Amino acid sequence: MALIETEEAARRLARAIASDLSLYNEDKIVKGVTEDNLFSAIKEEIEEGRALFKSRVAPDLFAKGLYDRAVIDILVRPKGHVASKMW
């Protein structure tokens, strides 16, 4: 499979991976936000997604932090209503 070479396609992939993380780990995410340990609570899942993203995109696109941005946009921002010390 050829590597993704465009930023738009890489961004879509990052968001799709983050969406899957959100879909399949909702309880862990809410608990992690509530207990202010989100990134520890789902570290394994985030790293698995990062590895998948890295394997599918060109190195220069991986270096842009698109995956990390998608994780914040998809996993953290929508949980702004959950009571937490984070905010």
Description:
- This protein has 87 residues and is mostly helical.
- The protein has 6 helices and no strands.
The SS-based structural class is mainly alpha
Rg measurement, Å: 13 Å
Number of strands: 0
Oligomer: single chain
| Count of domains | 1
In a few lines, what is going on in this structure?
This protein is mainly α.
Set out the fold topology.
Layout: H1 7-24, H2 26-34, H3 38-41, H4 43-56, H5 59-62, H6 66-76
Helix pairs in contact: 1-4, 1-6
List keywords for this structure.
single chain, 87 residues, mainly alpha
